[in-house]
Amino acid sequence: MNHAQNHDAYPDELIRSVLTSVKSIAVVGASPNPARPSHGVTGFLVRKGFTVFAVNPGHAGKTIAGAPTVGALADLPQPVDMIDVFRRSEHLGAVVDAALALDPLPKVIWSQLGVRDDIAAARAEAAGLTVIQDRCPAIEMPRLGL
Hints:
This protein is of the alpha/beta class. It has five helices and seven strands. The protein has a seven-stranded mixed beta sheet, sandwiched between helices. Helix 3 (89-100) packs parallel to helix 4 (118-126). The chain is globular, with a radius of gyration of 14 Å. 36% of the residues are buried.
């Protein structure tokens, strides 16, 4: 099955299907600072009823925006369906590599606004994952009425 996606545009059906099928999300780069977008989006996902884990090595064992926090994807206490990445584009490859080391694999890698690495995306897609880049679930969900 070919999972390769044109990362310049995503059909609404794909976004809707991802956001209605995932139940658990790891937010990589979640910030404890309420002024940061990653903090707001983490809280949004918690309030929407997802099982959310924040991933921030400096805050492991604490809570960020209502989500328990671990230091790395490898430290997640349970498998997750989606990894939402709030790291700069140059770090996306390392996040994808860490995601591909998980067992079971997540279904989706989602990178936030401004975050894109098509080479890393191709690695994830080759492993069967769906990749959405340069989008925000906290924007897409209200836009799609979810």
